[in-house]
Structures are given as structure tokens and as C-alpha cells.
Write a structure and sequence with these properties.
alpha+beta; Nucleotide Exchange Factor Grpe, Chain A, domain 2; three-stranded antiparallel beta sheet; 2 helices; 6 strands; elongated
């Protein structure tokens, strides 16, 4: 038996299938698709710009709030320091009053008087360095913002409303009254 050799048969060409016209890309459809893509990108860009503006606004507001907080903290710290100083000085004033009475009291011991006077001078130096000043009163017109009148007294030598006598000295700390001067005023 002889083998039969089969020759390969040529493949049959398949006829080209036609793509329906509705599925064929046309220039008009490509243009519409590109326009849609461009519009989508523009919308995304606008959304990103809006988001960036909101972020910038938030950042500016936060920076302003921080700046206000920093300034308020500095003011509060300064006020707290001043209040603390005023409180401490107010507590020291009775001691100063007692030393002042001791310096003005009659005594036979000159060394005692000299020691009290030197202590008063040191207190005056310290108070001056701290910004504490005595409120002037004697012989001046009565000022209710810095003087506290405890009584009125008739006087032939002074005008009405003039301070005749100081019972207790008044003091200011950097312009703020710590204690009013207690005085007698002429009628």
C-alpha cells in the first residue's frame, strides 16, 4: 500500500465582513468624543481651582486666628504681670506706712531714726525702679480719681476743695492707681 500523500489544500479565503455604517467611526463622532473629554477636563480643572481657593481661604483664616491668639496671649500675659505687681505692692504698702510713721515719731535715739529713714529711702529706690510713684496731694485741688476724702474742714488759709492734710499716702504703678490718697479737704 502506498501511502497517499495528501497535499495541503489551500485555505479558503473568507470574504471580508462589512462593518455596519452605524458602527463605523466617523469624524463627527470623534469630534463629539473629544469635546466631551475636553469639557470633562475643564470641569475637573474648575473643581480643582475652587478647592484650591477654599484651601487658601481656610489657610488665611487660620493664620489670622493664630495671629489674634498670639496678640491676645501677649496682652493677657502683660496684664497678668501688671496685676501681680500691683497686688504685691498693695500688700507691701502697710509696711511702708508703718515705717513712715516710725520715721515721723518723736524719739531720743538718733540711730534708730536714721535706720528707719535709710530703710524708707531704700524702699523709695526700689519702688521707683518698679515704676511705683507717690500720688501728690497736700496743697493740691481735690481729685476724686486719685484722692479719697474722709472729711471736710473749714480753713481760712486754703481755698475750698484744697487738700489740707494727708492721712495715708496714695500710690500709682505705671500710671494706674494702686491706692488712693486718704485726705482731709477744705470746705
Amino acid at each position: 500500500m502506498a501511502e497517499e500523500i495528501k497535499e495541503p489544500q489551500p485555505e479558503m479565503e473568507q470574504p471580508e465582513q462589512e462593518v455596519p455604517a452605524s458602527e463605523q467611526p466617523c469624524d463627527e463622532q470623534v469630534t463629539i468624543d473629544m469635546n466631551a473629554i475636553i469639557e470633562g477636563l475643564k470641569a475637573q480643572a474648575e473643581a480643582a481651582e475652587k478647592k484650591a481657593e477654599e484651601a487658601k481661604d481656610t489657610l488665611l483664616r487660620t493664620a489670622a486666628e493664630y495671629d489674634n491668639f498670639r496678640k491676645r496671649s501677649a496682652r493677657e500675659q502683660s496684664a497678668s504681670y501688671s496685676s501681680g505687681m500691683a497686688f504685691a505692692i498693695e500688700k507691701m504698702l502697710p509696711i511702708l506706712d508703718t515705717l513712715d510713721m516710725a520715721a515721723n515719731a518723736p524719739t531720743q535715739d538718733e540711730n534708730y531714726k536714721k535706720g528707719v529713714t535709710m530703710t524708707l529711702d531704700k524702699c523709695a529706690e526700689v519702688f521707683k525702679a518698679m515704676g511705683v510713684e507717690e500720688i501728690p496731694a497736700l496743697g493740691l485741688p481735690f481729685d476724686p480719681s486719685v484722692h479719697a476724702a474722709v472729711m471736710q474742714q473749714p480753713s481760712e488759709d486754703a481755698e475750698s476743695g484744697t487738700v489740707l492734710q494727708v492721712f495715708q499716702k496714695g500710690y500709682r504703678l505705671n500710671g494706674k492707681v494702686i491706692r488712693c490718697a486718704t485726705v482731709i479737704v477744705a470746705e
